[in-house]
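Final report, closing paragraph on structural work. Over the funding period we assembled a curated collection of sequence-structure pairs, and we close with a single example.
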Amino acid sequence: MFKRVENELELAMFNGIWTTVWMEKGFELEFSNQTLERFIVVTPEGHYVGTSEIKPYSLTSSSINAAGPFQTNPKVVEADGAVAEIDKMALLRPYRGRYISDLLSSAVYIAEKLHLKYFVSLLEPKFLRALRISYQVPLEKVGEKVFYKGDDVVPVLFDMEQMYRNKHRYDWLVYPLESVLVANGAGGAGQSEAIKL
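Its predicted structure, as stored:
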């Protein structure tokens, strides 16, 4: 299950998870000044095991543009502000594989909620392959593999609108129950269950 980071304790857990993963992989630590949303992945036992962060994207000022030609990609340019950056997609080592669907679901959920068409990101080649093959995520490389802040990464563009408009194609997609109820006008505050879409 995923949930929004809503308080200082959850923010501390969020930072603890992604910095642990980044240090393990030899990445440079880069804290974000601005975010649209932060999510944490929580196991059924209540363990905090993963993170994802959605940040504003700018054609002219986002630092991610230094690693890939996002600002010149026609889809990004034409999306006219309906683009964000997804960063800090991290799972603690013992939980990798089992909770990728929760990370992806958090991304699809927030993209739909904020009416975003695309996410830009830098992905490890192995993770990119898993997303493409195992999860059938609609994404495209927008540049060649580059060494950036500690590892080889591939600049990619996620087609988020494709996913949230075609949820039935993604059997791994799970939204929190609260978001479904709120989206349908039924309230739902305080619910922590999830439903399969």
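The first strand starts at residue 2 and ends at 4. The CA atoms of residues 109 and 115 lie 10 Å apart. We thank the funder for supporting this effort.
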